[in-house]
Amino acid sequence: MNGFMHQKILIFTDVDGSLLDHHSYSYSAAEPLLEDLRTADVPVIPVTSKTRAELQVLRTELQNRHPFIVENGAAVFIPKACFPELVGNADTVDDLFCYAFSESRAYWQALLKELETEFEHLFTTFEKAGVKGIMEMTGLSRAAAERANQRDFSEPVSWLGDEKSKQAFIAAVEARGATVLQGGRFLHITGGCDKGKAVQWLCQQYQDHYAGLDLLTLAAGDSHNDIAMLEVVDKPIIIRSPIQTIPTLKHRDVYITNKYGPEGWVEAVSKLIAPTISCPPSNNSLLGND
Q: pTM of the prediction?
């Protein structure tokens, strides 16, 4: 009997730069492994700065029916089919439970407006940039940029000034009660939340649902706003990035990939859980291969 019979494996993953290539947004290198994980019923749970609208499209493409965490931990969305009932004060959005950890986007937009004079011309927001500006900053299509702008709990900021002014800006925002998270491209202004808190809350829901099974948790990320998530799982994975330095963790059991993006994702997940799960191999299975 293998370890999978005694454990429920959960894979939490950052999206941009980790499961998706930083430049092309492609996940093609991970498709065979994702198919194997679906067959083995191992949840792959996106934990991202992206919005619910963006994740819905990606989840459909990936045939992913599992929970997901949006806007850097600001909210957890759980398909109702996952758990018969949910602990806590969760709202209902379509066919999803939603547990929020942050105030609304409008709250943070108002806060940022208070800083426009002090930091004039040093930053722009998604609200100010609009869809066209978001397209220019990200390279996204119009439809994708519109989904990126459908935020519920946070406001992304593109910093245009120097590092000293940036630190002053962050201090001013935090003094007003916000949390500032540095992503791959943007500063994300949100409430007292982070990816780690959201992951811990969701793990508790799984633990309650799968009473009697041990959880084995993995998380993959490439940037500093993934640190909180990586610190709270059993097996943290740092995906090597073409644009960022490797985050420093306190966790003693860290896997740092040799490859970038989805290739690195496959490298690490295959190595860490191949001995643990069993499933009928896909035609291009990567599980069990060195």
A: 0.86
